[in-house]
Design brief:
By secondary structure, the protein is of the alpha/beta class. The chain has 9 helices and 12 strands. The chain has a 4-stranded mixed sheet. The longest helix is centred in the N-terminal third of the chain and has 18 residues, at about 35-55.
Length: about 280
């Protein structure tokens, strides 16, 4: 019975409530770049207004073809604030799969950091090209959309049983997901949650929402620094990561000594964990 225990609200409403509680706390870190909750909210608000002016809104999709970065988090929140749903596109995907996803989902906009071939009816916005226009928009919060039944994002399946299928996830379950995992994983203000999963995998949303809806910090890094083994061990130590979700195959590659920071909360997911690994 969570109806009365978990605050109602869609993603950006829950995030804005957290901004009000911890405006000066670190919200997102990418290498040496850091944004507080207030700074992240302001940047997302400006970009959201630009997306609305470009045609984003309820019942529309905005494709996100961005690498792990502060801009990725800003864009994810901006799409939610615009009322649209985001379609994550992993830039490592083969061109054929990206083309299929764009043709199948038919997003109204594609937000990217580089020119990308897209269907002619998909308007592409390159972040560098719109930066000056985005900066001119007001930084205050947008009016609430207020419909938790509307789509929040669309994730495409792997296609292992045939053609990939787009799965629509609404805002309705976000508060329960975040509240349950924040409680079970012990995430709190001051925690540092690593964003490890591909944005095109639904675990990435768990990583973002549990951090940003609890006052914790989401830690992002270039893909090369997330490689299991010594690179990941070095990153976890350098960024003082307190919470990480890994598949067992990745954990198996971590050094036995120093592979995980002492006292860190580790979540295993995605596949069965062998008893020997546990």
């Amino acid at each position: 019975d969570t109806e009365h225990a978990v605050p109602a609200g869609d993603l950006h409403e829950l995030f804005e409530a957290q901004v009000a509680r911890t405006p000066e706390a670190e919200a997102v870190v990418f290498e040496s770049e850091v944004l507080t909750y207030a700074e992240l909210n302001a940047r997302a608000n400006r970009l959201a207004r630009h997306l609305v002016a470009a045609g984003a809104g309820p019942e529309t999709l905005v494709g996100l073809s961005l690498p792990r970065s502060v801009d990725l988090v800003v864009a994810t929140l901006a799409v939610a604030k615009s009322g649209a749903a985001y379609l994550p596109i992993d830039q490592a995907y083969p061109a054929e799969r990206v083309a299929f996803m764009l043709a199948d989902a038919r997003p109204a906009l594609l937000l990217t950091d580089r020119p990308t071939e897209a269907p002619q009816d998909v308007r592409t916005l390159v972040l560098a090209d719109i930066a000056a226009q985005v900066a001119e928009h007001p930084a205050d919060d947008l009016p609430a959309v207020g419909d938790q039944a509307r789509p929040a994002y669309v994730i495409y399946t792997s296609g292992s049983t045939g053609r990939p299928k787009g799965v629509v996830v609404t805002h309705r379950g976000i508060a329960n997901l975040a509240a349950a995992q924040v409680d079970r994983f012990g995430i709190e203000p001051g925690s540092r949650v690593l964003q490890f999963a591909s944005l095109s995998f639904d675990a990435a949303f768990s990583e973002l929402s549990t951090a940003l809806l609890s006052g914790a910090t989401v830690v992002l890094a270039p893909s090369a620094r997330l490689m299991p083994g010594e690179p990941l061990a070095a990153l976890l130590a350098e960024q003082a990561v307190t919470h990480v979700t890994l598949p067992p195959a990745a954990l198996a590659q971590q050094p036995v000594d120093g592979g995980l920071p002492e006292g860190m909360t580790l979540v295993l997911a995605g596949e069965a964990a062998p008893a020997e690994l546990v």
